[in-house]
Amino acid sequence: MRRTANVLMIIASTAAAGCGGPGTTAKAPPVDEARRHLVTALDAWRAGKVKGLASASPPIRFVDPDQAAGARLDGYKPGDDPTTVDHVVDYPVELTITDRKKATRTVQAAYQVVAEPALAVLRNDP
C-alpha cells in the first residue's frame, strides 16, 4: 500500500509539472548525491528538525510513516547496494526507532530518492 501511494505521489507530481514534450525525461540523481540527500533527511529526523527540510537549499520533501506517527530516529545505517531504476535511486537503510509508546525496534527500510521534478526522499518498504 505504501509503495502504491509513493508511486502515485511521484506520478502526480510529474504530471503536475507538465509535459515537456519528447525527449524530456526525469533523470535519477547520481548515487553519491542521492546518498547525501538521504543522509540529510535522516539527520534532520534524528535531530527533530524535519520541518526545516522544506526550507533547506535545496528543499527536500521527506516522507516516512514512522516519522509522521511521531517516532524518534535513534540511529540509521544506509546500505551499500543502492539500485537505480528510471529516475529513482532506491536505498536500503537499517533504522533504529523509538515509537511514542517508548518501544525501540530495528527496521529494514527502503527509501526512494528522486531529484526531478523536485527533490524527495520517500520511504518505500518492500
TrEMBL record:
Residues 1-17 form the signal peptide. The keyword Signal applies. Keywords: Signal. This is Uncharacterized protein. It comes from Paludisphaera mucosa.
